[in-house]
Every structure is written in C-alpha cells, then in structure tokens.
Amino acid sequence: MSAVRERDSKKIPVTEFMISDIEKNLKADQMDLLKLRESNILDLKHYANEATSKREDFVANLAKITKNLQETKDRSNELYASTNQISVDFSKVTDQLDFAASLVQRAEDMSIIITYIQEFNKPLEDPPMVRAPNQPPPDPNNPDNPPQEVLVPAFDPLDILLKSIKFPPTLYQCAELCAKLFKIVTSAERDYLQNARINLIQYRERLKDQLLEQFVANSKINKYEQAKCASALGLLSHEYEAMEAFIKSTPIMTDAGKKYHFKEKYLFEDESILLDHYKGLCSFFVTDCKKSWDLIDVIFTGSQQPKTVLVTTVFNTVFDAFISRVLNHYLETPSKQNRFCDMFYKLHNETDEMLKSIWALDGQTFSNQNIMENTFHNFQTSYETLETQALTNIMLEQVVPHLKKLRQIIENAKKWLTRKEEVSYDIFSEFNPQMPITILTNGAAAWERCVVLCDPQRKHQVLKSLIDLVIQANLREYLITYLEACRICMMKENDINTVPRFLAITSVINMSILTIEAKYSQILKPHLMQKPQYHEMFLRDRESLISSLEDGITKNLQICINIITDRVKSIVATKNFKNSFLQQNVDGSVSQSCKEICQILTGPNSVIQEATALSGDNNISFCSVLAKELIDTICNALFEVRYDFPEGTMQLSMDLNEYRNAFIKFNLDFVNIKFEDLDIAAKIMCTPADRIQMVKKDLQMTPKSIDLAKKLLPLRTDAKDEDLANAL
Predict the structure, then answer these.
(1) Are 288 and 348 in contact (CB under 8 A)?
(2) Mean of the per-residue pLDDT values of the chain
(3) Confidence class of residue 12 from pLDDT cuts 50, 70 and 90?
(4) Which of 549, 396, 388 is nearest to 484 (CA)?
(5) In angstroms, rounded to a whole number, what is the distance separating the alpha carbons of residues 167 and 183?
C-alpha cells in the first residue's frame, strides 16, 4: 500500500501540463496577430497613398470637364444668337417675297376688276319695239273701236351685255364679284361710271332672283347649299329676302300649320274649346321652332336675328289675326263682354308662355313686350274700362244686396232696443262665410290681370281704383256693417248661444285679413312700390281696415263676455245653486249648477272651443277677461252660501275640481294659480275643526289660500260651535 502511494506521488500533475500548452499557444497567436496587424497597416498606407493619387487625378479631370462645359455653353449661346438672326433675316426676305407676290396678284386682280367695270360701263343698246305675241281681242260690242296694239322690246339689252362678259363659274362667285364691283362703282364720285352702276343694279336683281330660286329649290334638301345662297344674298344686301323665303317654307306657314290657324267657327264654340285651339297653335309653333332653329344655325350667319324675324313675322301674320279676331268678337258681343277681361288675360298669358318657351330653346331670355305690344295694345283701353265695370257688377250683384239687408236689420234692431219689443232676428244666418272670400278672390283676379294687361302709363292708377273698389267699398263695408249688426242684435237677444256663433265668424274675418296680406305680397307689393304715393295710400287704408275690424270685434267680444257672465250669474243666483251644499241635496256627484256652468265653457260648440278661432292678442285678451269675470262671479257666489260638514264641503271640493278641469282649458297661468289656492281652501273646508292647524302646516298655505279659507270657514254650519272664524 505504501509502495503504490510513493509511485503515484512521483507523477507530473495533469493541470500543470495543460496550462503550459495554452500559454505557448497564446503567445504564438499573439505573435501571429502582431504580424497580421503590421501587414494590414502597411496595406492601409498603400491604399491611402493610392487613393490620394486618384483623388488628385479626379479633381484635375473635374476641372477639365467644368472648363469644357463652360466652353460648350458659350458656343451654344453664340449658335442661338446666330440662329435668331438667320430667322429674322429669313422672315424679312419672305415678307419681301410675299409683298412682291401680293403686289403682282393685286395688280392682276385690279386689272380684272377694271376690265369688269369697263364691260359693265358700256351703255345698253336701245332695243326696237315689236308687236307682242298676245294681243287683246276685239270687243264684239264695240267693233268700231279696235283694241290698241301692244308693243314690247325686241330683246333684253342686259342679256346682250351679260353674254359678252366672262363670269366666274358659280353663282356664288358671281354674287361676290357683283358685290365687289358695286361697292367700287358706288364709292366713285365721277359720272363716267354711271352706266356701270345702273347695269350692276339690274344684274344684282337678276342674281337675287336666281339665288332665291336656288335657295327655295334646296329647301329641305341641302341646308348647306341654302347657307351658300343666304351668304351670297347677304353680299348683295338681300339676306332679308332669304329669311322671308325660309319663313314661308316653315311648317307653321304651310298646309301642315294652316289647319291650326284661326277659323271663324271658333267664335261660336265654348270658351274652353276656343282656348284649346289657341293652345294647339302655340304648341305647334314651339315644336316648329325647335326644328327650324337647327336649320337657321347652319343657314344664316348671326342666327339670332333670323330667329327673331321668324317669330315676329309669324306672330304678326298668324297669331295677331287669331287674337284680334277673338277679342274683337268678345267686345262686340254684349253677352260675352263680361268674359272679355278673362279671355284677354288667358290669351296674353298663353302667348307669353309660348314665346318664353321659344327663347328658352337657345337658353335665352328676351322681353316679349315688343312682339306682343302691337297686338294687345289695341285692346288695353277697352280692358281697363271693362275690368272696372265687370268688378263693379260682381260687387253689385253679390255684395250690395247683403249690405242693404244688414243696414235694414241695424235700423230695425235699433227700434227694437228703443221700444223693447219682443222681436228677435237670427243675424248669424245672414252672414255668408264665403262672401269675404268671394270679394277677395274676384278682386285678386282683377288685380292680377291689371298688372299684366294695363298700359304701363295708367297701370298704377287703374290698380289703385280696383283696390279701393274691393277693399274699401265692399269688403270693409260688408264686414264693418255686419259687426255692427251683430253688436246690436246680441245686445238685444242676450242669448248665450250667440257667443260661439260669433266667435266662429271672427275666424272668417281673421282669414280675410290674412288673405289681404298674402295677395299684397304676391301681387300688389312689387307694383305698388314703383309708385311710393300709391304704396303709402294702400298701407294706410290697410291699417285703417284692420284697426276698424279689431275695434268692432273687441266691442262684440265684450258683449260676449257680458252675455256669458250674465248667464253664469243667473245660474248661481238660483235656489238650486244655493242649496247645493246642504246635506239633503248632496248625492255624491257634481252639482247641477256646476255642470251647467262647465257646459257653457267646454260643451259642444263651447266658448273655449270657438275662442281658438280668435287671433293671438284677441284670444288672450278675451280668455283672460272672461276667465277672471267668471271666476270672480263663481267665488262671490260661493262666499254667500252655507255648507254642511262634511257632506256640503265635500260637494264644494268636487265642484271646484270640476270648475278647475273646465277653466284649465283657457291655458292661462293666473287661472291655474287661482284654482290651486281654491283647492287648498276646499281641503281646509273638509277638515275637522281640531285638525285644521295641523293640516294648515302640512299644506303650506299661501296668503291667498288662507284668505279664501277664512272667507269660507265661517260658512260651515258648524262654524259657531267650533269657532271656525278663528281657526286659522
């Protein structure tokens, strides 16, 4: 055992051997890294030197390139300047060549023109006269007096002249040449070209006829050839003839359109059928224009003038005859005179709409007054007279009889009031709710016609007279007179049933005022503002009318309040009301007197229901005054009756709740507050005497409710026993 240990102790440790190897390897690697580092440093220095050398070469080359670029730019600028100079020189040379060629061409053209002028300046031959082929036959009744022989020129001297001249090949070129020659000859101030001027005038007329013939021949065949003809005629100052020829070929002027033209039999047909004929003519012409516009745009230069000429010509030829014949017939026929104004207006409007539709085809808007004036102006004076006359007749037939009857009722009613006679009259059956509408409808129709049809110089004067006739002389008189008749009759009758009927009528009066406002804005205002004096007069009259109507309505509403209050007072003055709160009369429901009062306010056709017809301020004033009067009347009556406890006080509470449900519909704040106080007072009335103070604290009573309770508590039948006068 000891031998083994000795042997093992002599061995070299393994770790010592491994560390020495690692150190050797590290030193070897370190030497290798140092060598590699030195090698890399040498390489980097070499590369740096090489890069420095290349950078110097690059900078030198860049400087050379910059220099070469600058030299190239300078040479480019020199080349640009040289090119511009060459262009200028070339242009000058070209202009000189063109001018030289132009002089040559102009010289040649002038030579040709002078030749033509010389040819046309030749005097025409004087042709001999020869016997005409067709001679008038002898008169068998007068053989001794033979007819005179007719002689004609042997030839046309202009034909001989024109055959000797060589003209351009086309008719259009001939027209251009003729226009040019005529312009030169006309501008010359010497007499030696007089023959040329005369001959050119004749030649121009011949060309015109030929061009018109060709224009018509190409109608509906070749619009481009028509355009050439129209242009050539324009050069000859005869474009209007081309327009006339075109118009004659349009459908409205041919057989297709003539079936829509005026016919005498139309005058004896119904008015609606007559207007249908005219509408058909207008519609056909608009359709015709839609087709013609495209042709006009191609054929004529400055196409708006030909379009205007077409419309004006057709209107003066076709529409004027239709309109004038119809309106003259209405003027001359007594049975139709009352329809003249309406017919005049309808024809005018239909015509105006037709022309607007035609101008709209091109997106244009023109005044139609110039086209329509010549036709309609002839009837304006008659219209102004008949309009006033017709409106006056309507008022005489429909309004004046009612006015007379109302005035008679007023006179009779005044006598009834004075004599206290037991005579009644149902004034409300005399009110026709359609009458104000009829007056304003007829008036507005007349105003609308007036602003369109009247002569502008007299329009405002006529309009003012029509306004006065409608509003002042009839509507105002009718409504004011009726309100006065209502006032007297309601005072005489003192019948509560008249109140809802009057309130319903006020809605018609309010509607009349609103209608006046609407018609003023729609029709009258734009025209009256053109004449401030008439506008101010209208505004004053309107305010006067409204003020008078409001005054009349206010007086009548006060009478209504008095009638209702008197009726309620009569109810609360009855024994039935006074005994309603005694034990033997309490049946557990609302008292009969309370039902009657609430029925007045909320029943069918009731006061509150009809009061909604009143306008804003009138409604509030009427309802406020009426509610206060009625509440005070009821309260005062309740303060004068006796209440059994608890049956009678419970009856009081039920009645007050019913009153509250009725009065709440007035929609007034003070009414709600009043019944809240009454409700609190009723609760106190229903409270046993020993608990009143406790209930008072719980109810948080207001001073007004306390005051009401103090007035009611002493009226309880147990007041003395319980000392209720001092309970609060």
Answers:
(1) no
(2) 85
(3) very low
(4) 549
(5) 18
Give the count of beta carbons closer than 10 Å to the beta carbon of residue 387.
25
Q: Where are the domains of the chain?
A: 1-109, 157-249, 252-382, 399-571, 573-726
- Range 147-161 average pLDDT: 78
pLDDT of 54 reads 81
Reported confidence tier of residue 7, pLDDT bands at 50, 70, 90: very low
Count other C-beta atoms under 10 Å from residue 537's C-beta.
15
Q: Which residue has the tokens 């006359």?
A: 389
Contacts of 129 (CB under 8 A, 6+ apart): 151, 152, 153, 154
Are the CB atoms for 237 and 290 separated by under 8 Å? no
Residue pair 439/478 in contact by the 8 Å Cβ criterion = yes
CA dihedral 58, 61, 67, 72 (to 10 degrees): -120
d(CA 629, CA 505): 23
- Residue keyed to tokens 């008036």: 443
Give me 70's structure tokens.
């600058």
Report how far residue 116's alpha carbon sits from residue 88's, in angstroms, rounded to the nearest whole number: 41
Identify the three-state secondary structure at position 131: strand
Distance separating alpha carbons of residues 50 and 27, to the nearest angstrom = 35
Instruction: List all residues 6 or more positions away from 439 whose beta carbon is below 8 Å from its beta carbon.
Output: 395, 398, 399, 470, 474, 475, 478
Going from the C-alpha of 540 to that of each of 452, 517, 523, 537, 697, the distances in angstroms are 25, 13, 18, 5, 61
589-638 pLDDT tens trace: 999 999 999 999 887 777 888 787 677 677 888 899 999 999 999 999 99
3 confidence band (pLDDT: 50, 70, 90): very low
The b-or-e profile of 202-238 (16+ CB within 10 A means b, else e) is bbbebbbeebbebbeebbeeebebbbbbbbbbbbbeb
Per the listing, tokens 């409204």 go with 546
Report, as an integer, the average pLDDT of 475-497: 89
Task: Give CA–CA dist 465/457, Å, rounded.
Answer: 15
Cα–Cα distance between 492 and 249 in angstroms, integer? Answer: 80
What is d(CA 394, CA 399) in angstroms, rounded to the nearest whole number? 8
User: Are 361 and 289 within 8 A, CB to CB?
Assistant: yes
Global model pTM greater than 0.90: no
Supply 287's token pair: 């359709």
Distance separating alpha carbons of residues 474 and 465, to the nearest angstrom? 13
How distant, in Å, are the alpha carbons of 116, 167, 180, 190, 237 from that of 197? Answer: 12, 17, 12, 11, 15
DSSP 8-state class, residue 723: T
91 contacts: CB under 8 Å, gap ≥ 6: none
Residues 233 and 299 sit within 8 Å (Cβ to Cβ) = no
Q: Which residue, chain included where needed, has tokens 């086209």?
A: 371
d(CA 407, CA 478): 10
Which three-class secondary structure state does DSSP give residue 368? coil
- In 3-state terms the chain splits into helix, strand, coil percentages (rounded to 5) of 80, 0, 20
Strands of 109-259, DSSP E: 129-131, 151-153
Length of the chain: 728
Token pair belonging to 514: 């609103």
340, exposed or middle or buried, with CB in 10 Å at 0-12, 13-18, 19+? buried
Angle at 28 between CA 22 and CA 30, to 5 degrees: 100
Distance between CA 638 and CA 709 in Å, rounded? 12
Tokens 């005579």 -> residue: 423
pLDDT score, position 150: 79
